[in-house]
Design brief:
19% helix, repeat, single chain, lectin, SUEL-type lectin domain-containing protein, Lectin_gal-bd_sf
Length: 250
């Protein structure tokens, strides 16, 4: 079933590799594809079947999938036009159309992904209030991911570190209550940052790191530092071999 599914969707992505096992060269045909390609193509195909629901501030929105599991595509608590949820509202509450809540997608995804039914309350008590005085609404785009495909995509999700730095590269981040003298140096980098973070987090499903001189060296004495990490979540590859000749990696 796995082989049939993979071949159906991704026959154009097969890559030929060769493995030498001794002095004699035995070409082993290895079929490989990366989970990122799998994910992007599946999501791209299912995006055409996504549903968008809008909930005015103060109301509850119910999401459901009759076949499959919920997968959130986009979510925003705020306002991006003057007409949505505008009935009975004064004009001054509708003017800001560049209103986005930074935690909306993360919260909705954690609340609903992988479920068949979920409810989300559109309120500033749950989401941060990105534009005080503006009447907001919650807009969610989602699709229903078939059970078996979701198992392939999200089995064994792990952390992949892209970059990390313990230091300071601007004067505004982590600046609250700090004197200007501790914020003026903005070219502060710790050379071992990515190595330290990767050693503790790479390939794991979760990890924690203390942002401290005791963990990282101190690249700029007297400057108040912060730890900035860029990472992604991907699937841990699994290999299944068929008749010792064909290897499908996913």
């Amino acid at each position: 079933m796995c082989f049939e599914l993979v071949f159906f969707f991704f026959s154009q992505y097969w890559t030929v590799l060769y493995v030498n096992l001794s002095d004699l060269v035995f070409p082993y045909l290895v079929y490989c594809f990366y989970i990122k390609i799998f994910y992007e193509l599946i999501v791209s195909a299912l995006f055409n079947f996504s549903e968008t629901v809008v909930t005015c501030d103060g109301f509850v929105q119910s999401l459901s999938c009759e076949h499959g599991k919920i997968q959130i595509n986009t979510a925003n608590y705020g306002r991006t036009d003057k007409t949505t949820c505008s009935q009975g509202r004064p004009s001054q509450q509708l003017q800001n159309t560049n209103c986005f809540s930074p935690n909306a997608l993360d919260f909705v995804s954690k609340s609903c992904n992988g479920l068949e039914i979920c409810e989300v309350y559109a309120t500033h008590m749950i989401f941060t209030d990105p534009c005080f005085g503006t009447y907001k609404y919650l807009a969610i785009s989602y699709f229903c991911l078939p059970h078996r495909i979701r198992e392939y995509l999200f089995h064994g999700t792990v952390i992949h570190i892209q970059s990390a730095n313990y230091g300071r590269t601007d004067s505004s981040t982590c600046s609250n209550g700090r004197p200007p003298a501790q914020l003026s140096k903005t070219d502060c980098y710790t050379l071992n940052s990515q190595t330290v973070v990767a050693s503790r987090c790479e390939g794991k499903s979760s990890c924690s790191i203390l942002a401290s001189n005791s963990v990282f060296s101190d690249p700029c004495v007297g400057t108040f530092k912060y730890l900035n990490i860029s990472y992604s979540c991907g699937s841990k590859c699994k290999c299944y071999c068929i008749e010792k000749l064909y290897c499908i990696v996913f």
